[in-house]
Amino acid sequence: MIAITAPSQRFSRLLANPSAGAILLLVILIVAMSVAFPNFFTGINAGNVSNQMVFVLLLALGMTVVLITGGIDLSVGSVMGLSAGIGAYTITSGAPLVVGLLTTMAVGAFLGLINGIMITKLGLPDFIATLAMLGVARGALFLWTGGVPIIGYMLPEYYVISGLSQPFGFITVPILIAIVAVVVVAVVLKFTSYGRHAYGLGSSPHAAVLSGVPVARIKVIAYMISGLMAGVAGMIMAGRNTTVAPTMGLGYEVAAIAAAIIGGAALGGGRGSAFGAVIGALVLSITANAINIAGVSSSWQQVVTGGVLLLAVVFDRVSSLIRARSARLATRLAHA
Amino acid sequence: MFPSNVTAATQVGLAAEAPIVEARRLGKRYPGVIALDDVSLSLRAGEIHALLGENGAGKSTLIGLLSGLSNPDSGELLVDNKTRNFTSPRQAQDLGISTIYQEQTLAPHLTVIENVYFGRELKRGPFLDERAMRRRVESLCEEFGLSKTDLDLPTGSLGALKQHVVQILKALAFDARVVILDEPTSGLEDSERQMLFDHMRRMRERGVALLWVTHRLDELFGLADVITVLRDSRWVAHVAPTDQTPDSLVRLMVGRSRNLAESSTVHDGREGLSDTEQAEVLKLTEVTRLPLLRDISLTVRQGEILGIAGIAGAGRTELARVILGADRTDSGEVFVRGRRVLIRNPRQATKLGISLVPEERKTQAILGSMSIAQNISISSLDDVSTGTIVLNNRKEKNAANRFVTELRIRCSGVTQKIGTLSGGNQQKVIIARALFNKPSLLIFDEPTQGIDVAAKTEIYRLIYDFVDKGGAAIVISSELPELVNLSDRIVVMREGRLVGELTGQRRNTTGGTDNELAEKIMAMVAGVTEQSRVAEETP
Amino acid sequence: MSVRTRLTQTLAIDGLPVAAALALAVVFFSLASPFFLTQENISNLLTQSLFVIILAAGMTFVLIVGGFDLSVGAATGLSAATTMLVLMNGGALPLGILAGIATGMAFGIINGFFIAVMEINAFIVTLATLSIGAGALQVLTTGTQLTGVSLPAFAWLTKGSILGIPTGVVITLVIVAALEWVLLFTTFGRTIFAVGTNPRAAFLAGTPVRRLTFSVYLLSGTIAGLAGVLLASHLNSVQPGLGQGYELSAIAAAVLGGVSLAGGRGSVWRAVIGALFLATMAQGLQLIGVDPLWFSIVTGASIVIAVAFDRAVQQWVIKQLAAATTKRQIFDDSDASASVSADAPTTSATRSSVRNTK
Question: Which of C332, C343, C347 should we substitute to test contact with B (largest number of B Cβ atoms within 10 Å)?
Fold first, then answer.
């Protein structure tokens, strides 16, 4: 009996630790890529991948925090575009670069704040509130730019900040920013009471209420972190693209959610980590890179992202079903 | 005999010091239900205070008031001789009152240490002081049987006992002076139970006041210092265990209920049943679905009412769900009218002639914003439609009107929304829904939950009518007098198993009284063993 | 009864607020612009709003059953593309229409499978299929111009007229009427309401919840396919990004029409009024010189306002219901107490003395 159940238990334990599965996936992906494309494992390509993954990584970090509390943020793509647009505009109207960059981030956090207020104070479902924000922020950007991309904000320093010029080789400023963001989010999640409350809230809202956790505040801050991350991503992307098109960030919410879920965050809340977000973002970026190297039209990108998201949730669902079943049947052993 | 006042506790003479918590004539009403009526209680340091009562006797309501989950409508609650009004559980906790609920109130993804300090983490600067928290939990854990390796596991992966211990640690880490335990031994193995009792003794030694809610009477002796018994939302007795036996406690818990008189009048009016063997409607052989159903074998015959007794969580509702196909069995066989079947979902059960009147009407039975007619027809839409596709409103209305008259549903019309009816009338609509299917087996899960006395009698009448017309019924109920009077046979469930079978009052010819039978069942439900009964009776 | 109570009671009637808002908008824009009430403008307005109306009708089913479908916009766009593709490659018109509808159905089947059978969160599943659909449209439209079908019958689908009414409007009316009929007068529609109102109760009462949920997503996908065919006929060209944002408008229209996001409440005609209101706002704002780009903001904001409003009204209704129930039950109790009055003294006597069994 025990001999039969042991492997399945080990299997379910592996699934219970989602980052292990994701790391495995990542390793397989890297090995497959290196075998299929000799020029995958080059420094230049590694630099490409890391510089491309910054956006998804930042968004996935914020999304992970929101998912941990049991929510979801569909608005990150639009928030990214609108905050970049407003930041770029402040620079074109003569503000110093620092002010422009700070504005970008502040707008992101502010839009996140509005999301949080809609959810906690107006009682809107998280999906609806952030879906509305997706529409409104995107609409505002279109309206305000009149559909014409914003240009003329590229001060010399912005090239460095966005990673377009690379004074330190492929370790660009955006990569440094991303590393800092990962470390900060990891520290907040692991070593502060905020992080503890976020995990507990997502794990069991009932327990959070009984333990006196300030539920509304935890949620609002989570959406603000997500908005802030979108702002930072927008700030970098504005520099990378040298223009802010009204479609900037369109569809990025799908990639962000996919990356977070691959990294072990779950829709039910209570699970996920900054490290997982890195793995998830890596998986997505390498897939994108594969499409690129293989010479497949980049139009496929969106299809693949959507497919990866679907696969990730299906995997999450199947593994949780297996876990629930083995937990139920394990009582047989306990009572035998 | 004890004097008839609420200060009886002092007469028990176990604790002379002032109580930490004192409840004075607490009352709580919900719409249409008096959940707690005039109940008083004192909790003293270093004392284990047991709270006894059947399901629905008001224990949960009382715990809710003491732990700050709800507010009393009358009476007052004193902590350290000061009147307190809790608006949240946190306030009660801050005053040193911690509650260990029966249901899961830990965050399953957090580790033991994280859960113990959840909501009140120790900090050093902006960061968590993990070391201080670990030190404090480690200093407590070994005494309570948790190893250091357990501390870093998510609580969701721990067994029931360890989860209880985590809740105990959570209470102790904040120097709780009063710990309320709501049926802490349910779901525990015997050996685990003993360990939990040791933990409770240890808490008592630390000077904690414990309020212990339990069903298992045999556990009380040698552990509880004081016992309070509730019945029908009221305070019944305040006794010392040394003066009691399990049987005398059962008698206090069951008492003489008014429902009994009510239902027997209905009973008297019934025609007797012929003794000829009736056809088997349902047969289960060794049906198992882990974790709550183990090797259940039973049969239900035409014209018979089978009662199922047991406490909440004994597996009664799970049994009903398996019969209905709402959950799959792990193993075992199900026969309907002699034919082996595999019921995959309630729809299939409906087609086989099995219908359920679920417990928790509001969440599991009524379609609140829909009309009475729509609620009645939902299981039998084929009968009120043309070609099973297009609804025939006239057929639907006629059928609904027929049931409203037959079942005496009080309403302004069949288009009235079911949500606006009283509990009893809602239940009649749900029974109409089941009857409309022309079932051969009806399962009633707590059919009179939250219903006034007059309506209860009518529900009993409906069940009898159904069985007299050749149906078979299974009745699950926590109200023992009700079960005793309704059933031909009663099976008792405990921890997922059938532990006994008795002849019900409906066909009882041995001349035993209702109370004796109820007490016998209560003893089985509570796990009072035959030996202990014999041992008591011999001296 | 206070004015406030009466006002709230009126607002609680489903569909009334949005109908009033529509009327107000029409009056306002007719006063503000002399062109608003011209036949040309109205037919323009209707043609513009057809697609959202159809999608909102399908969305109503999904919302009533307690689900959600973000993929309808992408499904519409992709269906339009497959229709165009078939027609451009010389396929017959019925084949083209079939291709479009089949594309929509494929979305429905995929969504339905993952949501109903695998029981995965509807938002995430349909977000993923949205992404896949929009990406597929991108793939189909890069490098190929999907335009220039010269079948008169194809153009007639939206631009022709039956009895002086644009064909597109007639087709939409037929679809809307058929869907409303299904929702209100069939066993299928009834079970949708039951499942949306209380899925657990509906399941225990023998409703095939899983199959029903699947059918509803299939229906929503099919409707999106139909909308795609009409959209292709209307535009006679398909661009990448076609249909983008339609899901937001469809949801907004349904929610404005009082279709509850929690499931169990709503009707097709009310969603249609919601869609007409949105279209009127779009057209009217444009006529009085407001940038049409405001539309997306109006749509998003209207979702928030409508849901918050609905929540407030429902809370009020529930409070009223609870108050009514309490009164009724007290009445019942007094009825009941008459029959048990004989027992009452005994029970209170039990309470006041400690019953010892020795």
Answer: C332
Q: How far is CA B385 from the centre of its chain?
A: 40
Tell me, what CATH number does A83's domain have?
1.10.3470
Residues A166-178, mean pLDDT to the nearest whole number = 84
| Token pair listed for B535 | 């041992």
B196 and B219 fall within a common domain:
yes
Q: Give the pLDDT mean for A112-121.
A: 95
Q: Are B417 and B527 contained in the same domain? A: no
Decide if A207 and B109 are in contact by the 8 Å CB cutoff. no
Which single residue is written with the structure tokens 């905020």?
Answer: A194
The CATH number for B222's domain is 3.40.50.300
State the pTM of this model. 0.83
Given a cut of 50, whether residue C302 has pLDDT beyond it is yes
pLDDT (tens digit per residue) in C22-65: 899 889 988 888 888 888 888 888 888 899 999 999 999 999 99
Same domain for B412 and B387? yes
Domains and CATH numbers, chain C: 3-318 (1.10.3470)
Task: Looking at the structure, tell me whether residues B445 and B528 fall in a common domain.
Answer: yes
Cβ(B61)–Cβ(B38) below 8 Å:
no
Above 50 in pLDDT, residue C96?
yes
Query: How many alpha carbons lie under 13 Å from residue A139 in its C-beta half-sphere?
Result: 21
Tell me the C-alpha to C-alpha distance, in Å, between residue A331 and each of A318, B232, B289: 21, 36, 11
- Give me the residues paired with residue B234 across strands: B37, B231
Whether residue B358 is contained in a domain is answered as: no
Q: Which residues contact C126 (CB under 8 A, 6 or more apart)?
A: C68, C69, C70, C71, C111, C115
Task: Say if CB B226 and CB B12 are below 8 A apart.
Answer: yes
Residue B290 identity (one-letter amino acid): L
Q: Which of C139, C142, C293 sits opposite A139 (nearest CB)?
A: C293
CA distance A222 to A238: 24
Q: Which of A191, A192, A196 sits opposite B118 (nearest CB)?
A: A196
Highest mean pLDDT among B7-11, B166-170, B308-312, C70-74: C70-74
Nearest-CA distance A196 → chain B (Å): 7
Single residue among B156, B175, B194 that ends a domain in this structure: B175
% of chain B beyond a pLDDT of 70: 85
Read off φ and ψ for residue B480, nearest 5 degrees. -60, -45
Q: Which of B122, B142, B175 is the last residue of a domain?
A: B175
Asked if the model's pLDDT at residue C336 lies above 80, the reply is no
Q: Is the pLDDT of residue B146 over 70?
A: yes
What backbone phi and psi angles, to 5 degrees, belong to B354? -115, 125
For residue C133, give both structure tokens.
Answer: 């659909």
Q: Residues of B with CB below 8 A from A208's CB?
A: 107, 118-119
Do both B82 and B141 map to the same domain? no
Provide the mean pLDDT of chain C: 83
How many angstroms separate the most distant Cα atoms in chain B? 81
Could you tell me the CA-to-CA distances from B396 to A182, B329, B433 in Å, in that order? 62, 35, 12
Regarding whether B189 and B50 lie in a shared domain, the answer is: yes
Range(s) of the domain holding residue A272: 44-324
| Percent of all residues in chain B with a pLDDT value above 90, rounded to a whole number | 25
Q: Mean pLDDT over all residues of chain B?
A: 81
Structural domain total, chain B:
4
> Rounded to the nearest 5 degrees, what angle is found at the Cα of A194, between the Cα atoms of A192 and A197?
115
Give the 3-state secondary structure of residue A119: helix
Please list the residues that pair with C73 across neighbouring strands: none
Domain encompassing residue B336 = 259-353+439-537
A79 in any annotated domain: yes
Count how many domains chain A has. 1
For residue A307, list chain C residues with Cβ-Cβ distance below 8 A. 128, 132
Asked whether the beta carbons of residue B118 and residue A332 sit closer than 8 angstroms, the reply is no
Structure tokens at B481: 């007098």
| CA gap B328, B321 in Å, rounded | 9
For residues B323 and B187, membership in a common domain is answered with no
